[in-house]
Write a structure and sequence with these properties.
Alpha-D-Glucose-1,6-Bisphosphate, Chain A, domain 3; 4 domains; 19 strands; binds 1,6-di-O-phosphono-alpha-D-glucopyranose; phosphoprotein; metal-binding; metal ion binding; EC 5.4.2.3; Phosphoacetylglucosamine mutase
Length: 543
């Protein structure tokens, strides 16, 4: 078996050779680069997905099927491989692995991904590494594996996902190809598969009899548009949504989508700001969500990820209080350095909820959120979700079903239960977050203006800066301070000190070949100027 597999792998390596001199690390959300440079890495990720599945054999299903324990122990856990470059332009693509609970690949495995990436096409060297890894992981080639593959609407996606499939199959892997899916859908599906579908089921949104306000959605010309059509049909009695940038005309993420709206703080192209009460944008693979509207003074007003944290935390706290559950519950909000200072201030000082700050990347936020009974995490870019502990879920359910409890307590528990059902706990999911947001606004009788008025953002500016080698920038303290190049942090500190309530940081992107600069201050002009000054110093010190 080993010889045949080795031959097949050698043939695949010949078919999709690694370009010379290429260096690719497992970044913020997997491997990402220009699509035409990626086929070779798909081979490595297919192999790794298979190994991960073999290692995770039986760990999940076994608990639910004790009767079949001996049979089940050999059933591998399903691992997801999502081919997408999410918010990046159409010419990019990428791939990331999803662990059995639907979460991002365990970070201890990123090193194997990077090791495989660093190896060249020599079949003997690669095979040698794979054999060593299998010994270390205590798995064998003949062990079964299951890998679920899905991809976004990029032209390059079908070929790249096919390479993942062919590579994984060399390692005795059963492939489930879901083809076109949003990223969060695959996360959720992997979790449901491994839980024998006990985890997931179709959720009904039941916020009450009221109709929800009309909403115009910019689908970034991505996969989300197709999935929104299904939602549109299913919810037509309750909720009228209009879909723009549905992929029939514009290009993926080009001057549209959540990243564009957040970065440039303006409406996307392809969505006329006419007479809708509110609008939102998702991104190319539908894991981010940003809301906006035109206020009475005809100004564009945006509600980003920080706003979802505040809204969700307010709703959950309120319902926990009404259900008489609040005293026993540890709630926390997890943010990154990009969170607007006013949001952090509001959550800590007005809501009395602790805030943790972690490095960029959902994988970091998700991990931290597990420390709480209710861990609410959102990146300012609109990527996030809420995690509930099993213990709290059980308590919510028992209040809901306790006939001796007053009706208002049971109702609050029921509403929490429905919220938990709507939300996608495996990862940030734009469509699930959208439904949860609409349900909460309706239940709390809150308009979009009222939601915005909960606190006032400090003006901020984000820039993308092209540099020779972005790895020259190194950071610490959840990316809020730089450790390299020398003197960069001192210069930033000096610049920041000139601006009231000024704050700025820089970090290398893990998904694009750029450095990101963030600045905030009391006026937009100051935030813009501070960002620009920091940009100049970054360019100067990375020449
Ligand atoms: C991915 C990650 C996010 C991260 C974003 C930008 O988003 O999932 O957690 O905030 O990249 O990362 P960076 O600043 O390192 O480029 P997406 O929506 O592209 O998958």
């Amino acid at each position: 078996m080993g010889e045949i597999a080795k031959e097949k792998l050698a043939a695949l390596l010949l078919e999709y050779p690694k370009p010379s001199g290429i260096i690719l690390g497992y970044g913020t959300a997997g491997f990402r680069a220009r699509a035409d440079t990626l086929p070779w890495i798909m081979i490595r990720i297919g192999l790794l997905a298979s190994l991960r599945s073999k290692v995770k054999k039986g760990e999940y299903r076994i608990f639910q099927f004790l009767v079949h324990i001996l049979n089940e122990i050999f059933i591998p856990a399903c691992i997801g491989a999502m081919v997408t470059a999410s918010h990046n332009p159409e010419h990019d693509n990428g791939v990331k692995l999803i662990d059995p609970f639907g979460e991002m690949l365990d970070q201890s495995w990123e090193i194997y991904a990077s090791n495989l990436s660093s190896l060249d096409d020599s079949i003997d060297a690669l095979w040698n590494y794979l054999e060593k890894l299998m010994t270390q992981l205590n798995v064998q080639l003949k062990d079964k594996a299951t890998v679920a593959i899905a991809y976004d609407t990029r032209q390059s996606s079908p070929l790249l996902s096919h390479i993942v499939q062919r590579a994984a199959e060399i390692f005795n892997t059963n492939i489930i190809n879901y083809e076109l899916m949003t990223t969060p859908q695959l996360h959720y599906t992997v979790r449901c598969y491994n839980d024998n579908e006990l985890y997931g089921r179709c959720t009904e949104m039941t916020p009450g009899a009221k109709h929800l306000e009309q909403l115009a959605i910019d689908a970034a010309n991505g996969i989300g548009a197709q999935k929104l059509v299904v939602l549109q049909q299913r919810l037509s009695d309750l909720f009228k949504i209009e879909i723009f940038n549905d992929g029939t005309q514009g290009r993926l993420n080009e001057k549209c989508g959540a990243d564009y709206v957040k970065l440039y703080q303006k409406a996307p192209e392809g969505l006329p700001l006419t007479n809708y009460p509110k609008y939102c944008s998702i991104d190319g693979d539908a894991d981010r969500l940003i809301y906006y509207f035109i206020d009475q003074n005809q100004h564009f007003r945006m509600l980003d990820g920080d706003r979802f944290s505040v809204l969700f935390a307010s709703f959950i706290s309120k319902k926990l209080k009404e259900a008489k559950l609040i005293d026993q519950v540890k709630i926390g909000v997890i943010q990154t350095a990009y969170a607007n200072g006013s949001s952090t201030n509001y959550v800590i000082n007005t809501m009395n909820v602790p805030v943790a700050c972690v490095p960029t990347g959902v994988k970091h936020l998700h991990h931290k959120a597990l420390d709480f009974d209710v861990g609410i995490y959102f990146e300012a870019n609109g990527h996030g979700t809420v995690l509930f502990s099993d213990d709290l879920k059980t308590r919510v359910k028992s209040v809901m079903e306790d006939e001796n409890r007053p009706d208002d307590e049971k109702l609050a528990a029921k509403q929490l239960h429905v919220f938990i059902d709507i939300i996608n706990e495996t990862v940030g999911d734009a469509l699930a977050d959208l439904l949860a947001t609409e349900a909460i606004l309706c239940l709390m009788n809150l308009s979009i203006e009222g939601w915005l008025d909960l606190y006032h953002d400090l003006p901020q500016r984000q820039l993308k800066v092209a540099v020779k080698d972005r790895t020259m920038i190194q950071t610490t303290d959840a990316e809020r301070r730089c450790t390299a190049p020398a003197h960069l942090q001192d210069c930033i500190d000096e610049l920041v000190s000139k601006y009231p309530s000024g704050r700025s940081f820089v970090r290398p992107s893990g998904t694009e070949d750029i450095v990101r600069v963030y600045a905030e201050a009391t006026t937009q002009a100051d935030a813009d100027q501070l960002a620009d000054e920091v940009r100049k110093i970054v360019q100067e010190l990375t020449k």
